[in-house]
Design goal:
Blueprint (H helix, E strand, L loop, with lengths): L19 H5 L3 H7 L36 H7 L15 E2 L2 E2 H34 L7 H27 L2 H23 L3 H4 L2 H11 L4 H8 L1 H29 L2 H30 L16 H57 L1 H9 L5 H32 L4 H34 L6 H41 L1
Antiparallel strand pairs: 1-2
Organism: Theobroma cacao
Keywords: ATP-binding, Chloroplast, Membrane, Nucleotide-binding, Plastid, Transmembrane, Transmembrane helix, Transport
Family: Belongs to the ADP/ATP translocase tlc family.
């Protein structure tokens, strides 16, 4: 009777069936089944019908010998898993997402919500304080960004780099965020209530009389120094707490695949915070309506603050919508296209804005049919530019920027991110402020500088698009190397 091997397929055989131990030296469990004196359970023939088994170098058994054995029984006796037991146990999921991943994503989303809620209130308040303060004006902002904000950002980056070398990640996080909490608490309960006593108004007035009105901006920094300090700390909250602390933590505990899927969704909760914070600012700004009618006769920053609340709400709604589309953009078109959308939005809206300013007269007749003047149309386009560019930045540019850090080594992530987010961010703002200062001094006013500002915008946006294209090539190459290394490790 010819030998018959009853099996469920090759996968049910023990692993590595060609090893010498498996061929020439069967395991103890297999010997018991081959040479047992009693019939084997699950076998069609007993030992009496299997007179001998001869191993040969070129074959498993001698030709013409009768041998019947179920491979899965031998595998079980040898301690090997059966066919149904091979493979990893599926991890528990909720809504198609692994619970391990949810434990990371949900806390990160809540953190982003709270951080951005605070940042929106700080951002809407800082401009109101410094622009509407007594003895100050909007001219203070370019000087403030250049001569105060930038040096403090550079100093913080140097301090952060040194602390990163000696502190653990957890200790570094708390060491950085505690001074912010302490300052904003002190400002609300001490510095702001005492501002009339601690601001050198008389000295600033004397210096202004001597130096002339051209020094109104620099002198205002000294005049309202506590408000300027609040302005700088609010700016640093955006670059330090959001960019360095939060995104640094997120980049350390998430993979690139998780980032592509969930980073855009972080903004959903965050921009709900943007909407709520805008409504919060507007609510507190409108509390004065409950006061006597005489109060409205005096100038107040509340109208400015109320407008900023509406602006933040509109930005939050637009960003929320973009967040819903961002995951589709990442999945369908990839990192490169997503990174180019923000500069493209700025380019299109910027061209529309400057066209209305520079060519308002030829366009006036066409706009009159819609009941608008070129100036009013420019205001609407400018508002749309701010809203859509910010929404594109929050929903696409920021996730793209953070994804670019993930394939880098740990040291580059920590120190390089601090240098880019903390220094380059205010450096760009200070650079723009310096350009405005130079053009105002050269051409006499901001209105006369408009054509040249349009040219600067065009050059910078084109350079931005070129940089995004270059980074796309480098990022794709790093991702391929990372995937290749993972495949080699699995092999």
């Amino acid at each position: 009777m010819e030998a018959v091997l009853q099996t469920r397929g090759l996968l049910s055989l023990p692993p590595n069936p060609t090893r010498a131990r498996s061929l020439l030296n069967p395991s103890q469990g297999l010997k018991q089944r081959l040479f047992a004196s009693k019939p084997l359970g699950g076998l069609s023939l007993s030992y009496k019908k299997v007179p001998s088994v001869v191993a040969k170098p070129n074959g498993l058994f001698a030709e013409g010998k009768n041998f019947i054995c179920k491979a899965e029984a031998a595998a079980a006796a040898d301690g090997q898993p059966l066919f149904g037991e091979i493979g990893e146990t599926e991890k528990p999921k909720f809504l198609g997402i692994e619970l391990v991943t949810l434990k990371k994503i949900i806390p990160l989303g809540l953190m982003f919500f709270c951080i951005l809620f605070n940042y929106t209130i700080l951002r809407d308040t800082k401009d109101v304080l410094v622009v509407t303060a007594k003895g100050s004006s909007a001219e203070i902002i370019p000087f403030l960004k250049t001569w105060v904000n930038l040096p403090m950002a550079v100093g913080f980056m140097l301090l952060y780099t040194k602390l990163a070398n000696v502190l653990s990640k957890q200790a570094l996080f708390y060491t950085v965020i505690v001074p912010f909490i302490a300052f904003f608490g002190a400002f609300g309960f001490m510095l702001y209530p005492l501002s009339n006593y601690i601001h050198p108004q008389a000295l600033s007035d004397k210096l202004l009389a001597v130096l002339g009105p051209r020094f109104l901006g620099p002198l205002a920094i000294m005049r309202i120094w506590s408000f300027c300090l609040f302005y700088v700390m609010a700016e640093l909250w955006g670059s330090v707490v959001i960019s360095v602390l939060f995104w640094g933590l997120a980049n350390q505990i998430t993979t690139v695949d998780e980032a592509k899927r969930f980073y855009p969704l972080f903004g959903l909760g965050a921009n709900i915070a943007l909407i709520f914070s805008g409504r919060t600012v507007k609510y507190f700004s409108n509390l004065r309506k409950n006061l006597g009618p005489g109060v409205d006769q005096f100038p107040s920053p509340n109208e400015y603050s109320s407008f900023m609340g509406d602006f933040s709400t509109a930005t939050g709604i637009a960003t929320f919508t973009m967040m819903l589309l961002s995951q589709f953009i990442f999945d369908k078109y990839g990192w490169g296209v997503a990174a180019k959308i923000t500069p493209t939005v700025l380019l299109l809206t910027g061209v529309g804005f400057f066209s209305l300013i520079l060519f308002g007269d030829p366009l006036g007749l066409g706009l009159a049919k819609f009941g608008m003047t070129p100036l009013l149309a420019a205001v609407y386009v400018g508002a749309m530019q701010n809203i859509f560019s910010k929404s594109a930045k929050y929903s696409l540019f920021d996730p793209c920027k953070e994804m670019a850090y993930i394939p880098l080594d740990e040291d580059t992530k920590v120190k390089g991110k601090a240098a880019i987010d903390v220094v380059c961010n205010p450096l760009g703002k200070s650079g723009g402020a310096l350009i405005q200062q130079f053009m105002i001094l050269t051409f006499g006013s901001l209105a006369n500088s408009t054509p040249y500002l349009g040219g600067v915008l065009l050059v910078i946006v084109l350079a931005w698009l070129s940089a995004a294209k270059s980074l796309d090539t480098q990022f794709t190459a790093l991702r391929k190397e990372e995937e290749l290394e993972k495949e080699m490790e699995r092999a």
